[in-house]
Design a protein that fits this description.
Length: 268
């Protein structure tokens, strides 16, 4: 398989139609081939690196005001550093989500300084060299356990049994989630990311309600875990975070829950 840059250069030799590129469109843009998407982004970087796109209305969200897509690396770096001129607090998703969704599901991603800096410092306090060594050992152990588990099956759904299970198991181990809740975390995070897919959200259920309910379920798991860790001396990340202080402040229960939801979504 060619490298992304090779695929992009090859696909752009014919010059994709700039007017036909719509980053807001799940279908056809995000369902097309990877090579075509690489080509589209290469064309944008070359000819229209900062381009405005309107948002599309979905069956459960009204169309927002649109957004500027920044596609060159140097420009992305500049935007990321210029918190005085650019913000994340209004949301980072292509479709504009309601404020309660941005706060709950985006956590630190949908946040600006000084709050973002404070929470980042608290989280960073948990990622010590010792914690990273423990995490590394845990990843190796989890990967070995998963391979041993499916090795004798002959066949399996690789996404469900291996590709999805590995990152979420690592995240649950990292946060000290009890093993009997792993499947719950997996199912709830699938709903959060489902985009209303009927495989995860029944057609007679409002997707927004399903997302909030699933997010609340993940938050409840984190609240239970954090409560068990308070007053203890555990070595998982939840134990570290419930005791870590920056400028005399600790993370609230809701901040911990939102951080856990962010990890689950990122690891799904």
């Amino acid at each position: 398989m060619p490298a992304p840059s090779d695929a992009a250069e090859s696909a752009t030799s014919a010059g994709p139609d700039l007017e036909g590129i719509d980053l807001s469109s799940i279908d056809p843009f995000w369902t097309t081939s990877m090579a075509d998407r690489y080509a589209a982004f290469a064309a944008l970087r070359r000819h229209d690196p900062i381009r405005f796109f309107p948002e599309q209305e979905t069956e459960y969200l009204a169309a927002g005001p649109g957004y500027w897509a920044v596609t060159r690396h140097a420009d992305v770096v500049e935007v990321s550093r210029r918190s005085d001129a650019f913000c994340s607090g209004e949301g980072t998703n292509i479709p504009d989500l309601p404020p309660e969704f941005r706060e709950f599901f985006g956590s630190m991603i949908n946040m600006d300084d000084p709050r973002h800096a404070r929470l980042r410092r608290v989280v960073s306090a948990g990622f010590t060299p010792r914690m990273m060594r423990t995490l590394d050992d845990g990843i190796v152990r989890t990967a070995s356990d998963i391979v041993d588990r499916v090795g004798g099956w002959g066949s399996c759904d690789f996404v469900t049994e291996v590709a999805s299970r590995l990152p979420l198991t690592v995240i649950c181990d990292l946060m000290g989630i009890e093993p009997d809740r792993y499947d719950d975390v997996f199912e709830l995070s699938n709903i959060v990311l489902s985009q209303g897919d009927p495989e995860y959200v029944p057609e007679d259920v409002n997707p927004l309600e399903a997302f909030l309910s699933a997010g609340a379920g993940l938050a409840a798991i984190m609240h239970e875990t954090a409560e068990l860790r308070r007053g203890g001396d555990g070595e998982d990340l939840t134990s570290v975070l419930v005791h870590a202080e920056v400028d005399g402040e600790r993370r609230t229960a809701d901040e911990l829950a939102s951080f856990f939801v962010l990890l689950c979504v990122a690891g799904n």
